[in-house]
Amino acid sequence: MNRHLECSVAACRSSDLKLKGFKVHEITGPAYASLSYGRRDCYKIVLATGDMNICYGDKTIDINDTFLFFGNPHIPYSTEHRSPEQKGYACLFTEEFIDSRERKESLLNASIFRIDGIPVIPVSSEQATFIEGLYQRMLSVYSGDYERKDEMLRSCIDLIIHEALRIQPQHGLKQRNAAARITCLFTDLLEKQFPIENTADPLRLRTAQDFADGLAVHVNYLNRSVKEITGKPISVHIAERITTEAKALLQHTNWSIADIAYALGFEYPSYFNNYFKRVAGITPNSFRKDKGKV
After folding, report:
1. What does the pLDDT look like over 239-273, one tens digit per residue?
2. Does domain 178-290 bear CATH number 3.30.70.3040?
3. What is the pTM assigned to this prediction?
4. Do residues 123 and 174 touch, judged by C-beta distance below 8 A?
């Protein structure tokens, strides 16, 4: 079936993907021992069979069978292979490739792509056969000269995502009581602010009160609900997410530390320096140097 998630990353960065916004390929051959933890440049859907661990966001998922993996370019992940080979298929696509705004919102905000979702879904042999057929169709269309191939490829992506949503394990879903619903809405509102794309559009919601106002609820009720469901108060969620984005910007952009500070909603760079050091235990400049981004 597939060549390995490492090959998917190489394909994702290829000029072919950058030009067309889409690539599909079969994965065959040896599996690389590990794949580094970091952000990618495109969305990825992998159907594969293998024995491995996937670290995704703050989750570690153990796999030893056939599975679907959904990679979001804004959520860091890494893989550690225990089997010498991996087989399967992979398709990679940019957000620009997913045509309309409505389509982007319905597909790319699906639970399988969200930071609080489950990106790995086990599939049965029957389900794998159906999804393999979709990949084979994509391979055929991708290499052909059908003039509306982009539209057909998007339809195949739609079918894979909706099949995954249909078969995802139900036991992992929490009962949607009032606290869980408001927590989900808070998480949505928090995540929709990221990633930060440019310094001219800075972070706007940074406090528990900001989020309570945005959700039209009392701040005490919101904080109590979020802590009940997650075990952590809103301030911790906000601090962790801002710090995660700060690390990504320090590591993956050439923005100055002052620009990053303003983009994250800090009035002065010194406030950002103190905030980052308090949460991350290291100054922004030291973190950037450690990551080789001087």
Report:
1. 999 999 999 999 989 999 999 999 999 999 999 99
2. no
3. 0.56
4. no
